[in-house]
Amino acid sequence: LRPCKISLLLQSYVLLCVDLSYKIPSNTVFLFLFSPGSSSLGADFCLHGFQHVYGLPQHTDRLRLRDTSDGEPYRLYNLDVFAADLYCRLGLYGSVPLIVAHKPDRTVGVFWLNGHTPTVSGKASYVLYGKMRRLRPQTDAQTDVHWLSESGVIDCTILLGPAPRQLFRQYAELTGYQAMPPLFSLGYHQCRWNYNDEADVKAVDAGFDRHEIPYDVIWLDIEHTDGKRYFTWDPALFPKPAALQQHLEKKKRKMVVISDPHIKVDPDWPLYREARDGGHFVKDREGQIFRGTCWPGDSSYLDFSCPETRAWYSRCYSFDKYKGSTVSLFVWNDMNEPSVFNGPEQTMPKDAVHHGGWEHRELHNLYGFYQHMATADGLMSRSGGSERPFVLTRSFFAGSQRLGAIWTGDNVATWEYLKISLPMVLTLSLTGIAFCGADVGGFVKDPGPELLVRWYQAGALQPFFRGHSANDTKRREPWLFGEEVTAAIRTAIQQRYCLLPFWYTLFHFAHTSGLPPVRPLWVEFPRDESTFTEDNQYMIGGALLACPVTEPGAQTVKVLLPGSDEVKIWYDISSAKMYKGGKSLSLPVNLDTVPVFQRGGSVVCRSTGSGTCTADYQKLPLDVTVALNSQASADGELYLDDGHSFQYRDKKAFSLRRFSMASGRLSASEEGRFDCDTVVQSVSIMGVKSKPTTVNVHVPGEDVPEMSTFNSYRGKSF
Ligand SMILES: *[C@@H]1O[C@H](CO)[C@@H](O)[C@H](O)[C@H]1NC(C)=O
C-alpha cells in the first residue's frame, strides 16, 4: 500500500474516476477531478466509511473537522489575524492542505499540493454540479470532501495508511521529516514585546536564577532594532549586543531576535539599497517595486520565491554581515503571511508579481515557508553547516517542519484560548508540523494568576514552550504574582526540564519516522471510538497521557483512560497510583496538579535533580521509570547525542537505547556510537505485585556488579 500519486495539468474540463479498489478491496477511495473553469480547479473525494476527519491547519477550531454544509468552508489563506475569533473557519497564519480521515481499521490522507487559496468543504450531504446528492443512510457512513483552488495544477496524493504510523511516514516521505531541533530549543523560552534594553534583559535573566527557574532563551521583539530595520540594533538601547549574548552564553543560554520579511524603504540604509539594486523585492502589477505599510512604515517585501534572493538573504545572517550577532543568536520570522497593514485582508495584493512573472496569488501560502527556508539556511551556513539552526516562524506551509518551529500566533489571555491551544497543536502535529506550541499566558491582554499557572502547566506539555506578551500588557515574569504562583510555575517548568530526555527521544523519532511527539488519543488507540473526538487530552509519545487543566476554579477533571481493546493499565505519574483503562475518571485537582498518566507497558527516562538550563540538565543522571502492563512487561527508548551539531547524522554520534522489561528482568540494548557521561541513577518500577527479595545489576564488561540500593517499596509499586 504505497501512496499513489495523481498529477494532472488541466487544460479545460476533465472528469476522472479512479477506482483504487483493486488494491484495497474493502475500502474504496473514489477520486473525481474536474476543472469548472479556466481559473479555478477542484476535486471531490468520497471517503467511504469515514465519519471522522482531521487536519487542515490553521484554524482556531476543535480537532475533528466539522460538517461545513451549514456554513463557510474551511479556508486556507495565510493571513495576519489579530486575536482571531474562536471556532472560525477563516484562514490564519499558515496552511497545510492535508486531510486525515480515520476509522477503527484504517487511516487515510488526502494531500492537495496547491499554494493558491484552497477552500475545503466536507459535507454529509452535498451539492455536486448543482445537484443534490442523495443522503446516504446512517449505517453507511461517508465523508465527502470538496477541494477548490483559485488556480494552479492538481497535484494530489492519497495516503493509504492503513495505520496512523504508516500515514505519518508516507506524508513525511512526500513533504519531509521534522528537523532535529537543537536541545536548547526544547527548553523554556522567555519572550516579550519588548525587553526594553540590555539592563532589562540582564535583570530578567538574573530573575530566573534568583527564583531557581530554569530557562534557555530570552527573546527580543521588533523594538530591539534601529527603527525597525532588521539586522540592526537600537544604538541607545542595545549598544553592546555581542557582549550581551556572551553574558548569556556564559550561562549556556541563548538569545532569539525577530527578523521580518518587510524592509524599511530607506535609501540611506545599505541593506535596503542592496536588496533594491539586486532585484530582491516583489513588484507590483506595473513592474515597480511593491510598497506596503508595516512596522517601519513604508516597506518593500523580499521575494523569497526567488532562489537568488534566498541566497542573498541567507548571507545576511553571516557573522561578518550581521553586526552584533554571535553563535548564540537565533531567529524568529514574524509577519510573514506576509502582513501588509494597508493591503487587502491585511496582506499582499494577489496581482503583485514575483520572480519568473508569477502572480502573488499563485504563491501566497508559500511566502512564509520560503522566508523560513532562507533563514534556516542562513543560520546553517554561518556555522559552515555544522550546527543545527533554530528558527521560529509564524507563517508556514506543508513541509515547514523541515525548517524549524512554528507557534500558533497572536492568542489572547482567556481560558477559551488556553483550551483551544490543545486541538490547534494536535492538528498541526497530525499534519507534519510537529515542533509547535501556543504562547504561554496569551499574547493579548493580561492573564490572572490562576490562568497563568494553568497555561504554564499546559505549555510545558507542548512541543514548543514559550511565554510571550504584547507591548500593552503588564509585565508577567513568573515571579511577579506571589510565592504560590512562582512555586507552581517553577514546578511546571522544572518538570518539563526533567522530561527533556523523553521529549528529545520523541523528536528523534519525528525526525526519522515522521511520528509527531504529541498525538491525538486515537493515534495510539485507533480502534477505541471513544477517543475519536477527544481533544482536551492527548498522548505525548506512546507513553504519557496529558490532560492539562483548562477550566477556571477546577476541583476535579474528567480523564478518559483508553483501553477498550485489551486491558490497559495506567499510572498517575505524581502518585504512582494504578488505574484500569477503558473508563473515565474524575480526578481531584488543586492548583499544583497537572494530570499526566503513564501507560502500562512503557518506559520513560527523566533527568533527576535540578539545573538552570538544558545544558545543565544534560549532565544530570537519569531515572528510568518502568510502568508494567498486565503481563508485567514494558518497553521504551532513550536517544542521546551532543544536542547541537549534525554529528549524529554525519558520524553516527548518537546513542539509542532500547529498554525492555520482561520476566522480572530489565535489559537495555544500544545502537550508535556516542560517548557520554550520562548515568542511570535509579530505576523506578510501577506495578510490581510483591516486594522483591533481591535486585541484581549486571553491567556488560564489568566483573563486579555495581552495588545497588533498594530504596522504597510503596503499595503496589516501588
Ligand atoms: C505598542 O506598539 C504599537 C505599534 O508600534 C504602538 O502603536 C503602541 O502605542 C504600543 N503600545 C504601547 C503601550 O507601548
From TrEMBL:
Q: Where is the Glycosyl hydrolase family 31 C-terminal domain?
A: 514-604
Q: Which PROSITE patterns does the entry link to? A: GLYCOSYL_HYDROL_F31_1 (PS00129)
Q: Tell me the superkingdom of the source.
A: Eukaryota
One Pfam family from the record = Gal_mutarotas_2
Q: Can you give the residue ranges of the Glycoside hydrolase family 31 N-terminal domain?
A: 37-116
Single GO MF descriptor: alpha-1,4-glucosidase activity
Domain called Glycoside hydrolase family 31 TIM barrel: residue spans: 179-506
Q: Looking at the keywords, is Hydrolase present?
A: yes
GO process terms (BP) = carbohydrate metabolic process; N-glycan processing
Print the keywords alphabetically. Glycosidase, Hydrolase
What the record says about family reads: Belongs to the glycosyl hydrolase 31 family.
Please report the name of this protein according to its UniProt entry: Glucosidase, alpha; neutral C
Organism per entry: Xiphophorus couchianus
